[in-house]
Amino acid sequence: MNSETTEIVKKLLESPKRAVVVGHKNPDGDAVGSCLALSFILNRLGHKSDVIMPNDFPDFLKWLPGSEDIVIHDKDTDKSMTLINEAEIVFTLDFNALDRTGDMQQFLEDSTAKFVLIDHHQEPDSYAVASYSDTSMSSTSEMIYHFLEALDEIGILCVEVATHLYTGIMTDTGSFRFPSTTATTHRVIAHLIEMGANNSEIHQNVYDTNTPDRLRLLGVALKNLTILSEYNTAYITLTQKELDTHNFRRGDTEGFVNYALSVTGIVFAVIFIENKQDKLVKMSFRSKGNFSVNEFAREYYNGGGHINAAGGRSNQPLSKTVTEFISILPNYKKALTDAS
Ligand code: 5GP
Ligand code: MN
To answer: Locate the DHHA1 domain: which residues (predicted)?
Structure first.
């Protein structure tokens, strides 16, 4: 975090403040971990802070300390509105534009609070008085650690915050395997373990909580895997019916797209997930090497993310979405074959 941003944040936090810490829609481990960590820290520094998420987060994160107090905007809109209205500072974590908060966007835009952005996605919007944006970071959770260092508050780390940050870094780095994982990431992780994060227990809590339904849904996803070898591309589809048959719960499809990317020679992987209620198809994109799925998702699917992991959506029916996707690939043939 640069010194200018540090000074602005230090000034904002000089006296006790009411704050809310907000994550993105469909919160993942990094969003939930970083928001809980920052909120715990603010409360320990004498402020009054709450975490608000636009919608519910996956069950595999519900053991996180303090997760039971997270306000879910679409379930508890009145409480969320009150907290946003009363807030003097709004921290927005792990996203780069207010439209990533879904129905919360309007309330946030109407707020008179000072905004602070902490995020590692590309091309952040400029709604904040202080923006700590670093696309080279493994995760927003790692950034919260560096944020504490910049504020000279690293001594405030406790077992709960170490657990939040470990979980966020672990989930956003694919368990420390993505290229964004650096020597510094591992040093941060080592310190978090020293501060009481129980690494083995955290891995178990997050990854060993499959239901039989989820594993069978994975079986369906793998059966639906299609390889387009001409383009080093693989994709998976899941229909609403397939989700319903397996009693789909939020988070159940997390990581499925990585199986498509794990096929030898594949550099571009996509999962298309039908959502009849919202009348859209949600897509997750993953890539290896220089092929930027962030640019691809921005260009065609009203989305974005990082160079090797991004998301987007289509308002066309599932089959049309897939046909259109395939028709785009010839434009990228060189990029996709050079990248392998
Ligand atoms: P996932 O595919 O796991 O949902 O998301 C991969 C990455 O892309 C995450 O960093 C996530 O925040 C980002 N992402 C997912 N969906 C969207 C979207 O619709 N818009 C933008 N801008 N980013 C997204
Ligand atoms: Mn993240």
So the answer is: 246-325
